[in-house]
Amino acid sequence: MTPDSVQSLIDQLREEAEMDRPNDLTPDVGIVMGSDSDLATMAGGKGKRPGAYAALADELGFEEQTDYADAPDARFTFETFVCSAHRTPELMYAYAETAADRGVDVIIAGAGGKSADLPNMTASIAYPLPVIGVPVQEKSVDSVIGMPQGAPITAVDAGKSFNAALSAAQILARQHDELRDRLVSYHEALQTEVGEVSRDLHELGTPGFKDAYWEREE
Ligand code: C2R
């Protein structure tokens, strides 16, 4: 028996798949995770390094779509759900099966524990939509990347959901020059920052650098 809270999400996804909305009104990236306890890794915050949310929203100008009938102004958007292969298999199935028809072009799927099946099951069901798996912990890596021949998944290292988001944007950028430009700008800013840090370290010397930078972070 599927509880109402899950069934209503499944119904919403299936209805949305029938809507045939124009691409600029649907989420470009779908983010799913096995539990809301994965959110700090998948989104960033709570003492974790920046995650997929930060990469998409803060670095690349995406907005999160929370209402299918009321798309955000931003051209590039993403949606976020919790769905588990183990706990809510019907929801995972409906999510992956409807993703392409709902306008999603690439999925980022994160899960933790030793039996992190959500990313690879999502990849199999959503095929040929590309799925980027995020092992939430080190012990999840093997179960995320261990797919048999013919059943592909792309994956990042444990916890690296930020890079998963950049990879998702790279896939989208093949069709959207605007996004390509944003990716290039992001990379230039990254290089500028490394250059500035390197010059400061060299010119301030190690003790001076520690005083200037480490105190700033405290
Ligand atoms: P809870 O904190 O909810 O107990 O979850 C989640 O991704 C999470 O990291 C603990 C961990 O269980 C993982 N989980 C999976 C799947 N569903 C939940 N690996 C799945 O379907 O793969």
Describe the structure.
With 218 residues, the protein is an alpha/beta fold. It folds into two domains: 4-175, Rossmann fold, CATH 3.40.50.1970; 177-218. It is 49% helix and 12% strand. It contains eight helices and six strands. The chain has helices at 4-19, 39-43, 52-59, 89-98, 118-126, 141-145, 161-173, 177-217; strands at residues 29-33, 63-64, 77-82, 106-111, 131-135, 154-155. Strands 2-3-1-4-5-6 form a six-stranded parallel sheet, with helices on both faces. Helix 5 (118-126) links the parallel strand 4 (106-111) and strand 5. Helix 1 (4-19) runs parallel beside helix 4 (89-98), helix 3 crosses helix 7 (161-173) and helix 7 packs antiparallel against helix 8 (177-217). The protein is globular. The chain starts with a helix and ends with a helix. The model has no long low-confidence stretch (mean pLDDT 96). The site of ligand C2R has 17 residues, from loops. Ligand C2R binds next to loops.
Task: Give keywords.
8 helices, Rossmann fold, binds ligand C2R, globular, 2 domains, 6-stranded parallel beta sheet, purine biosynthesis, alpha/beta, 218 residues
